[in-house]
From TrEMBL:
Source organism of this protein record: Anaeramoeba flamelloides
Matching PANTHER family: 40S RIBOSOMAL PROTEIN S19
InterPro entries registered for this protein in UniProt: Ribosomal_eS19, WH-like_DNA-bd_sf, WH_DNA-bd_sf
Protein known as: 40S ribosomal protein S19
Annotated family: Belongs to the eukaryotic ribosomal protein eS19 family.
Alphabetic keyword roster: Ribonucleoprotein, Ribosomal protein
Length: 191
C-alpha cells in the first residue's frame, strides 16, 4: 500500500529514473540551503583519501559527497562505512613504484552518515550497516520528481511539437505540389 501511495503522490518517479549527476547536484543544493545538515569545521583541510595530496578545490564538496553517499545508499541499501571506503577508493601511483589500491577516507562517510541519522533520513541496522528511511525516500523522490519535470517535456509540449511538425510537413507538401504544377504549366507553354 505504501508503494501505491508513493506512486500516487510522486508520479512514479524515483531516484533511479533521474540522471545521477543532476540528482546529486540538486540534492547537494537542497542540503546546503537547509539548516539541519552542517559541514564540520575540518572540511577545508581534510583530504578525501590516502591517495590525494590536497583537499578538494570545490567549496561545496562535502555536500556533493553527502548527496552521492545518500544516492548510493538509496540504490544499494545496507552499505556500511567500509563499503563507502571501497566505493571512494583509488589506485595510488607514486613515481616509479608499482601502483597500489588504497581505500578512501572513513571519517568523511562516517560523519555524513551520523548527520543523516540525526536528521532521520538514514537509520542503522542491527548488523551495523545503514539504510534510507521512508522519510528520506520521500524527500529524495520529491527532488527526483522535480528534476524529472524540469528535464522531461510535458504531454502538452509533446503534442504541440508533433502538431508543429505536422504543419511543417503539410506546408512542404503544398509547396512541392505548387512547384510541380508550375513546372507542368511551363512545359505546356513550351510545347
Amino acid at each position: 500500500m505504501e508503494y501505491l501511495t508513493r506512486i500516487y503522490i510522486y508520479g512514479g518517479v524515483s531516484v533511479k529514473d533521474v540522471e545521477s549527476s543532476k540528482f546529486i547536484k540538486a540534492y547537494a543544493e537542497h542540503l546546503k540551503r537547509g539548516d539541519k545538515f552542517k559541514e564540520p569545521s575540518w572540511v577545508d583541510i581534510v583530504k578525501t583519501g590516502f591517495t590525494k595530496e590536497l583537499s578538494p578545490y570545490d567549496r561545496d564538496w562535502y555536500y556533493i559527497r553527502a548527496a552521492s553517499i545518500l544516492r548510493r545508499l538509496y540504490i544499494r541499501p545496507f552499505t556500511g562505512v567500509g563499503g563507502f571506503k571501497k566505493i571512494y577508493s583509488k589506485k595510488n601511483k607514486i613515481r616509479v613504484k608499482p601502483s597500489h589500491y588504497n581505500k578512501g577516507s572513513g571519517k568523511i562517510p562516517r560523519s555524513i552518515l551520523h548527520q543523516f541519522e540525526k536528521i532521520g533520513i538514514v537509520k542503522k541496522t542491527k548488523k551495523g550497516t545503514r539504510k534510507v528511511t521512508s522519510l528520506g525516500r520521500k524527500e529524495m523522490d520529491a527532488i527526483a520528481l522535480k528534476i524529472h519535470k524540469e528535464t522531461q517535456p510535458t504531454k502538452r509540449e509533446e503534442i504541440d511539437e508533433i502538431d508543429e511538425l505536422n504543419e511543417i510537413i503539410e506546408e512542404n507538401k503544398e509547396t512541392k505540389e505548387e512547384e510541380e504544377q508550375e513546372q507542368e504549366k511551363e512545359k505546356e507553354k513550351e510545347n
